[in-house]
Amino acid sequence: MTQKDIIHDVMLLSQKSTPATEADLQVADDLRDTLIANTNRAAGLAANMIGARKNIIAFFIGPMPMVMLNPKIIKKSDPYDTSEGCLSLEGERPTKRYKKITVEYQYLDFKKQTQDFSGFVAQVIQHEIDHCNGTLI
């Protein structure tokens, strides 16, 4: 298990990530391990939060960590305003999210998947995909 330090540099976090390839599977493992190590502090992480500018996110579905490579929201509905915190930033900030999303992504075998998410898990995925796009709350 390889836990990485969380990046707090806004300049680094504001840079757009690049597509994940098979060469980045170690980053995916490190991201999952770092999420597990921060279970009590984080619901999700993006690769740039551990210093890798790759389109990789990890988040919990219940007690299980899930990793997505190259995630992209292809459908969203039911917008709402909320406030979020971030392990890389101090405090909470207001943001707009969607209650229901459909995400196209690749799993660790690089096969394309499409899956629907709602509620808190959907909110976490949106937050982490924003990180991949260099968007901070």
Automatic annotation (TrEMBL):
The keyword Hydrolase applies. The keyword Hydrolase applies. Pfam families: Pep_deformylase. Keywords: Hydrolase. GO terms for molecular function: peptide deformylase activity. Its EC number is 3.5.1.88. It is an enzyme of class 3 (hydrolase). Gene3D superfamilies: Peptide deformylase. InterPro entries: Peptide_deformylase, Peptide_deformylase_sf. SUPFAM superfamilies: Peptide deformylase. Belongs to the polypeptide deformylase family. This is Peptide deformylase. It comes from Lactobacillus colini. The lineage of its organism: Bacteria, Bacillati, Bacillota, Bacilli, Lactobacillales.
